[in-house]
Amino acid sequence: MSNRRTFLKNSAMAAGSLALFSIQSKAGLSGLAESPAFSLPPLGFEYGALEPHIDALTMEIHYSKHHKAYVDNLNKALVAEKIENKTLEELLKNCSHYPAAIRNNGGGHFNHSFFWKLITPGGSGEPSGKLKDAIISAFGSFENLKTKFNDAAKSRFGSGWAWLIVNKDGKLEVGSSANQDNPLMDISELKGKPVLGLDVWEHAYYLHYQNRRPDYINAWWNVVNWNEAARNFSV
Ligand code: MN3
After folding, report:
1. pTM for the complete prediction?
2. For FRET with 15, which of 30, 49, 59, 127 sits at 20 to 30 Å CA-CA?
């Protein structure tokens, strides 16, 4: 083989491998450049800000590990299922048409994003305005609502959520859901617009309260953000 032929052959190989490298790096770059569909929202307060009612370590793990895992796994499931350009609400509303990973992680992402906004350091007193009127109309008193909500939260077997919702008749209703299901899902028995939600998974309270779920529920009322609940009610 002449030097020239060797040179041409080597150049062709080099060009070939360059082309291959270029395709791979393009794929790699587009993979990197493509931003995930969903991201962890800011918490809005320090991990320790809800103490003594909800402890700092529970908040840190709950937010930075559990919620983050729902977001990451939702993004992975969307890529795997080639689902694009759907809002979280659209995914939940039609979740019976999607694999369980979308239901579980989409629910997890929605529920936790909703939950963080409904808790605030020091709480915000009691419900007022139109929400207060609707509570009295549906339950007779705020105390009755609390009793009903506590019962729903305590009696949810295993992991799940307690909810205050506006149902299809426009009335307030209390109920609960299993796992990361929520009232926006087409598969949910309890359906409506969520106003208030409480996470009763053990990961939400076990480090501080161990098996004492009722103590955690009672403490949570001290940090409820009624301004956010009123906003959920009015939109
Ligand atoms: Mn949780």
Report:
1. 0.85
2. 30
